[in-house]
Amino acid sequence: MSHLQLAILLGMTVALGPLALDAYLPAFPSIADELNISHSQVGLTLSAYVTTLGLAQLVGGPLSDRYGRKPILFGGLIVFACGAVMVSMADTLSEMVFWRIAQGIGGAFCAVSVPAIVRDQVGGQEAARLFGLIGLIMFVAPAAAPSLGAVMLALGEWHWIFLMLAGYAVFMLLALNVALFPRLQPPPRTITPLKTLVTNYLLVLRHKTTMRFVGIQVLCFSTMLLFITHSSFIYQEWYGLSNSLFSILFAANIAFMATLNLINRPLLRRFSSVVLVRAQVIMQCLALVALVIAVLLEGPLWAVAACIIVAIGSQGGIVPNNMANAMEFFPKLSGTAAALLGASQFTIAGAISTLSSVFGDQTLLTITLGMLACSTGAVILAIGAPRAVARALANHEAG
């Protein structure tokens, strides 16, 4: 099948994660009121989902290498849909957190399958371009998610948001079964012992270049997740914006992501993906430096929002290039490599997000300083990355 068709279907699949993260953000005040909990406690439901989304990939990735992408992906969609329905019926914070964890397990099996399918089909700069195209399509979900959540709130209650997520998961299961897997050539698989599935992780963990790119992904995603977790607090509580204005500003982040993603595709013909990652990570860090300065000087909303849009929007160029670099060295273990990348990204970022919700005093300054700290770490790793992954790959194969 064509790359465009593959990207559309995989982009719609991986969009499940952003939808589950962002669609209920405008409902945080409503959930807090109905469950009689604080705004920050509602953030725990997001952190629980994200952390599980990471840890469960450690199981889903090796299983997809052994049993194939289809059963793992379809199983994930079913578990996700069931979890979403149960979240909609939760009456307490503990129930909601429990079923969000179940949702995270299903979402993890979906999330780990997509980059593995891409690496099964292509590699190198071509993989970076395909990841970019998938990302461009996927950006529709987080851009529309808060608006969809606001519509659900206007039509009924926050429970409807999770019923919508369940319906989307069922739709994707049917669409993939009809349009993707019958036309996709599966890679040859070998039935490896369970012990080998575990030791395969050591092969990835010992690869210094791959782990450098994993570290960049973790820190950049942590920067974004800190914003997502506290975005409702920043815009709706700190600045007192309405649901509609919050949704517009949130969508602006995604619009900038999409713009950088579009620019990134032709740049890949002239520059290596490593060079582009380095430039975009530095751009994100500079935007966050400006954000901290704007907060310290008590700057206006437009200045704060502009810095956030550039910092979060930088993910549009960072993610596809960095994922291609991280996945390049393990074509026969793409599920395992994707699992380690996703697990590290979501688990560590989820832990940072949870700590910021539980122990942070939750002021605009502390949130922005946390984002800047994560971005600074990513810059340090990006500066030390090899200029040419192809050369590093040749050394890897020779070794």
TrEMBL record:
Its main location: membrane. The chain crosses the membrane at residues 42-60, 72-90, 96-118, 130-154, 160-181, 213-235, 241-263, 275-296, 302-321, 333-352, 364-385. It is found in: Cell inner membrane; Cell membrane. One of its GO terms (molecular function) is xenobiotic transmembrane transporter activity. GO terms for cellular component: plasma membrane. GO terms for biological process: xenobiotic detoxification by transmembrane export across the plasma membrane. Signal peptide: none annotated. The keyword Transmembrane helix applies. It is a multi-pass membrane protein. Residues 1-389 form the Major facilitator superfamily (MFS) profile domain. InterPro entries: Efflux_drug-R_Bcr/CmlA, MFS, MFS_dom, MFS_trans_sf, Sugar_transporter_CS. Keywords: Cell inner membrane, Cell membrane, Membrane, Transmembrane, Transmembrane helix, Transport. Pfam families: MFS_1 (PF07690). NCBIfam families: efflux_Bcr_CflA. Belongs to the major facilitator superfamily. Bcr/CmlA family. This is Bcr/CflA family efflux transporter.
